[in-house]
């Protein structure tokens, strides 16, 4: 896959977040000028109020996550992960997944990091396990989840366990299914001889602009569901956890939220079983539209057609199993 195709895929994913960010900024501007979000009243003002509330609640954790990710990019050599993982790829997969708690990063940077690790000699299956685990189990994500679910601390442990389990299982399956895939060529991110300060600035600006826009888009969609969805539809989801799991897993793919902020959107889906909220939190950092576009640019169509369905199925299954064990109705 050429770098030109990769650039086009990356450029296309900025359109929706840019528009969403502009609309949320407009709502904030109107609130500061008139004392109200919008003068139209009714459901539209309720939608704007919920959108801004979710965005503002999640924004501090998003910024913190971006800063931590940028610091890791600037200060921590990627060769450290290679040194921490065993040579046997079957053991390297869980070791690399566990390193996601030590070397956190936004999913926006996960594909370039995985490519770099593969070029340094890390087995592809272990690199993909790190790619899946790091955005979902790092400390900033877990703290934001605890804040978003203050009355349900089990959600934090469920997210950690389900995400690590899914990352490890995908890595192990890929040892068998993915032979010959993922050479580390194609789209990659390099800073050349840039200083650490420049690397930090570039990584922070890139991740904040992209992730902030997707947060705004996700908040808008969640508010629309909260305000406009028929009560009968929400009732069906509340009474049928299996349907709710599939619906929220699909929304996680479409909304493409940053993992540092997705817990606040998940918590806004009140009335559904916590297992469905867990599915939203586990699937989102592993499978979403922006990640699919980046993986397509990095490793090609064949990789995406095999890796994405595998990851989605395993993530939903792990979230369902862990949710059934650890979570219950409040």
TrEMBL record:
A single GO cellular-component term on record: plasma membrane
Residue spans crossing the bilayer: 58-81, 126-149, 156-177, 208-229, 241-257, 263-283, 303-329
Lineage: Bacteria, Bacillati, Actinomycetota, Actinomycetes, Actinomycetales
Coiled-coil blocks: none
PANTHER family, per database record: UPF0718 PROTEIN YCGR
Name of the protein described by the UniProt record: Permease
Localization per Swiss-Prot or TrEMBL: Cell membrane
Similarity comment: Belongs to the UPF0718 family.
Membrane topology: Multi-pass membrane protein
UniProt-listed Pfam families: ArsP_1 (PF03773)
Major location category of this protein: membrane
This protein's UniProt keywords: Cell membrane, Membrane, Transmembrane, Transmembrane helix
Gene source species: Actinomyces weissii
């Amino acid at each position: 896959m050429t770098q030109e195709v990769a650039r086009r895929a990356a450029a296309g994913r900025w359109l929706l977040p840019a528009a969403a960010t502009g609309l949320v900024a407009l709502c904030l501007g109107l609130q500061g000028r008139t004392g109200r979000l919008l003068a139209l009243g009714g459901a539209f003002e309720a939608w704007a109020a919920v959108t801004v509330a979710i965005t503002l609640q999640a924004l501090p954790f998003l910024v913190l996550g971006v800063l931590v990710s940028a610091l890791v990019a600037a200060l921590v050599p990627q060769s450290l992960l290679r040194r921490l993982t065993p040579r046997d790829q079957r053991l390297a997969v869980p070791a690399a997944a566990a390193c996601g708690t030590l070397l956190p990063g936004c999913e926006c940077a996960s594909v370039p990091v995985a490519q770099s690790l593969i070029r340094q000699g890390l087995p592809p299956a272990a690199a993909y396990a790190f790619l899946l685990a790091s955005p979902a189990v790092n400390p900033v994500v877990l703290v934001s989840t605890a804040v978003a679910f203050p009355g349900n601390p089990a959600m934090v442990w469920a997210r950690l366990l389900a995400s690590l389990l899914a990352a490890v299982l995908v890595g192990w399956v890929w040892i068998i299914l993915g032979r010959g895939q993922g050479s580390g060529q194609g789209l990659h991110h390099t800073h050349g001889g840039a200083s650490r300060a420049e690397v930090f600035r570039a990584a922070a600006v890139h991740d904040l602009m992209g992730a902030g826009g997707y947060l705004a888009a996700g908040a808008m969609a969640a508010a629309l569901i909260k305000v406009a969805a028929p009560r009968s539809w929400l009732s069906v989801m509340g009474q049928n956890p299996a349907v709710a799991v599939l619906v929220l897993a699909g929304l996680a793919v479409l909304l493409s939220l940053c993992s540092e902020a997705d817990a606040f959107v998940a918590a806004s889906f009140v009335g559904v079983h916590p297992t469905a909220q867990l599915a939203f939190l586990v699937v989102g950092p592993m499978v979403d539209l922006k990640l699919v576009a980046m993986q397509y640019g990095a490793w090609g169509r064949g990789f995406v057609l095999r890796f994405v369905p595998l990851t989605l199925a395993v993530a939903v299954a792990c979230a369902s199993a862990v949710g059934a064990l650890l979570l219950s109705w409040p």
